[in-house]
Amino acid sequence: MLATMNTCTITKLARAFGLSRSTLLYYDRIGLLPPSGRTAAGYRCYTQRDRQRLERICHFRQAGLTLADIRTLLSSSGKPNAKLLERRFRELGGQLLELRSQQRLLASMLKGVAAGKCPPAVDRVMWVKMLRAAGMDDRAMGRWHTEFERRAPDAHQEFLVSLGIPESEIQRIRKSSAEGAW
Amino acid sequence: MPTKMTKENWIALFRDVGLTDAQMKKWHHLFETRHPEGHQSFLEWLGLPAEKCDLIRKESR
Hints:
The complex is a heterodimer of chains A (182) and B (61).
Chain A: H1 10-16, H2 21-29, E1 37-38, E2 44-45, H3 48-62, H4 67-75, H5 82-114, H6 124-133, H7 138-151, H8 153-162, H9 167-179
Antiparallel strand pairs in A: 1-2
Helix pairs in contact in A: 1-2, 3-4, 7-8, 7-9
Chain B: H1 7-16, H2 21-34, H3 36-45, H4 50-60
Helix pairs in contact in B: 2-3, 2-4, 3-4
C-alpha cells in the first residue's frame, strides 16, 4: 500500500530539506515526525503528509520555537495555539532589547577606538569620591544623573561605560535618571 | 539636544545640581592631583583642544 504512494526514504527527505539524516532520526525518536510506514525490510517510509508536516516543523523552527513547542502546536489539531506564539513573540522582543543595548555598547567602544582616545581613565569609585569631596551629596548626584540623561543621553551612556560599569547596572542608572527616582 | 557632552554642558550640569564655582575649582584640583591622566582624558572627552586642556590642568594644581 505505502509503496504505491509517493513515498521517500529518510535520506531523500533529509536532502530535500537540507537537514541531516540524524536530525530526522531524532525527530522520529521524540515523536515529532514518525514516518507513516516502513518497508518490508524495515526502512522508514515518509509519505506526502510527512513531508508537509516537516515543512511546518521547519517553518516553526525558523521562527525560533523549540521542538517541544512545535510538537504541542502540531498536536493541537485545527487552530494554532496562539499562546505559544505570543510567548515566543515576547521572548523575541526581550532579545531585541538586549541586542540593541549590546549594539549601543559596541558603538561607544568603537567610537573610542576610532577617535584614538581613551575615555576617562577613572573608575566609578574615584568619581564618586571626587564629587563628594567637592561638595556633592547623594541627592545632588542623583539629580546630576537625571540632568545628564536629559541633556545628553548618549554621552551619559558613553560616560557610564567608560567607568567600567556593567551594562545591566547602566540600564538601571539611566532608568532611575529618566524617572528622576533616586 | 546635543548628544555630545561639551564643556559648557558639563558646567551647566554641575551648576544645576548646586555646585558653586569654588566647588568646581576644588573638584578640578582634586581631579588633577589624584588622577592627572584621568583629568587629561576627561578634558579631551569634552572635546577641548590640547592648549585648553593644558591651561585648565595648570590652573588646577
